Amino acid sequence: MVDSAAEIDILAIVLRCGPQKYAGRSHHRCREINLCDNHKNQFLLTLWEDFGEIEGHEIASKMATEADLIVIFGRSIGISTFQGLSLQTRFNSTVRVNPNYPQAVKLINWAKENKTMLLSRALDKTSTSSSVTPMIVTLTGQQLISVAEISSAPSMGVFYVEAEMAILDEFQDFCVLECSGCKQKKRTKDRKDFECPKCNRKTTLVPRCIFQIDLIDGTATTTSSISAEFGEKLLFMTAEDIFDITCTKRQSLSLDNVHQMLSNKVFQIELRKSSWGSSNSTHATLSILSYMEKEHTPRSTTDRNSKKIRPVEISEVDGIATTTAAGSSNATPKFEPPTPTKKV
């Protein structure tokens, strides 16, 4: 469940441990580590404040000196929507390294036997700096699926697709305000200090980039969320800039350069599918964990000449081919006029 107030217990293998750093406008100390379970599912765990300094230092030291992967047991761990779905310590959390529990010992032995495979699949998500180049998502052994296949894929999974990206909804909010401590989103555009019921202390709100983007391939079109540094890179601006334009100045973002950058490009995208339930139904959401432009393969002379057999009609230049729902690759494309650009 995303953004749940519930706290969970975890038992997981540590694949990577990031350095101690400072995050947010309030410069809270934290350390990010990549976890994996015995089903090869990977999650990002953020160790906040003393957890990053004490337990995080212990984890980093053991990983540097011991040959085998280590296992941690965490209690009262929180869930957040950072990078799609992630975990984080709370004030009442506890973290134990290589505990002597039967379940932990069993997982440690399994990690020893599968160390090579686990490290080959490890995803480097330990850095959230906006200056970092998006990671390569076509890792060895990972299978690409079509956009249409995502709807039938199981929940809580990570998938890899090749698709075009487009921002068709220009009137959406491109950032939210969240608590600088617990990262919970707040339905407000006022950044004044407030008493956070989850953190139990007075704190500030910080802007976070997050918006909806459409993924399009030859089989279907679907909508996914993109956030944090990946969203900032796509918009060529920081979350602070987005908040200043959309909330402080109450203007719309100019996306002309974004549309131009995305035009006629295919990206290799790492997606996480998550689900959350209400009293009547269960809903699925998609989040982009990483993306990278696919290398362009130059067309042959024959391919280039084939494009010149007949002149392009004006109606074809003005139209955009999209499919309205997931279906067969033989589905007839529907041509729609481009979404009008919202003027600043």
Please tag this protein with its features:
seven-stranded antiparallel β-sheet; 21% helix; 344 residues; 18 strands; alpha+beta; Replication factor A C-terminal domain-containing protein; NA-bd_OB-fold; 10 helices
Percent strand equals 25-35%
Distance between the termini: 37 Å
Query: Spans with pLDDT under 50 lasting ≥5 residues?
Result: 124-141, 297-338
Structural class: alpha+beta
- Radius of gyration based on Cα positions: 22 Å
Helix content: 10-25%
Q: How many extended strands?
A: 18
Largest sheet: 7 strands, antiparallel
**Shape by Cα distribution:** globular
Mean of residue pLDDT values: 76
Count of helical segments?
10
The string of secondary-structure elements, in order, is EEEEHHEEEHHHEEEEEEEHHHEEHHEE
Describe the structure.
- The chain is α+β, with helices and mostly antiparallel strands and 344 residues long.
- Helices cover 21% and strands 34% of the residues.
- It has ten helices and 18 strands.
- The longest helix is centred in the first third of the chain and has 12 residues, at 102-113.
Quick rundown:
The protein is an alpha+beta fold.
Secondary structure blueprint with pairings:
Layout: E1 8-17, E2 21-23, E3 28-36, E4 42-48, H1 50-53, H2 55-65, E5 71-80, E6 86-88, E7 94-97, H3 102-113, H4 115-120, H5 147-150, E8 157-166, E9 175-179, E10 185-186, E11 194-196, E12 201-203, E13 205-216, E14 221-227, H6 228-235, H7 239-248, H8 256-262, E15 267-277, E16 282-293, H9 301-306, H10 314-318, E17 320-322, E18 334-336
Parallel strand pairs: 4-6
Antiparallel strand pairs: 1-3, 1-5, 2-3, 3-4, 5-6, 5-7, 8-13, 8-15, 9-10, 9-13, 11-12, 13-14, 15-16, 17-18
